[in-house]
Amino acid sequence: QVQLVESGGGVVQPGGSLTLSCAASGFIFSSYGMHWVRQAPGKGLEWVAFIRYDGSKKFYADSVKGRFTISRDDSKNTLYVQMNSLRAEDTAVYYCAKDSSGVWGQGTLVTVSS
Amino acid sequence: QSALTQPASVSGSPGQSITISCAGTSSDVGTYNYVSWYQQHPGKAPKLMIYDVTNRPSGVSNRFSGSKSGNTASLTISGLQAEDEADYYCSSYTSSSTLYVVFGGGTKLTVL
Q1: Are B40 and A37 in contact (CB under 8 A)?
Q2: Of B75, B85, B86, which Cα lies nearest the Cα of B36?
Q3: What is the DSSP letter of A90?
């Protein structure tokens, strides 16, 4: 079945870096654009980034532009987001999602704290 | 960056119908027929309930329906049930130069 599984979350100090992964299965990963969406504790959903199916275009929310980098490895059916210069306000559950579908992962928690 | 505007909360009694609005602009809801609605129960990932304004994914109850008029989209839930109590979010693609997708702030539905 179609599945997305995020990993890589954890506790990181302000100013630190972290890379999240999203392993995809059950569909032709290379044919779909992919999103990262996050949700701060007790808050709403916030779109973070998108990468086209062929990796040719990437879009970012202003809140992460210049600090986060979305990428994909189609040979591994895996989506990534590299997060640098992390701030307390980046603390959230991070979800990956398949474009134009209802397929989301279960999320991975990132906590930025000293 | 402006989110789509949703009421913070709505409520209804079992069996009743409720409507949640999602106000956008001509750069998002008003231009694109790519409005989606998500249901989220506490501690769970969002679940797609409506896509492309009016379409229901397989397995979603026909008690859920979507519509759009101008820059505002709406989600209607008829025959309210206790399990419908959750947070609901709308989203839309946008032609903003700085965004690709925009979400609403979320609406807490309480079934009385």
Answers
A1: no
A2: B75
A3: G
**CA atoms of B64 and A5, how far apart (whole Å):** 28
Q: pLDDT tens digits for B18-60? A: 999 999 999 999 999 999 999 999 999 999 999 999 999 989 9
Taking only the tens place, the pLDDT of each residue in B67-102 is 999 999 999 999 999 999 999 999 999 987 777 899
Beta strand pairing call for A45-51 and A58-60:
antiparallel
Residue in the structure block whose two tokens are 């209607």: B76
Q: Which of B3, B45, B106 sits opposite A106 (nearest CB)?
A: B45
Q: Which residues of B touch A37 (CB under 8 A)?
A: 103
The one-letter amino acid at A55: G
B101 and A104: CB-CB below 8 Å?
Answer: no
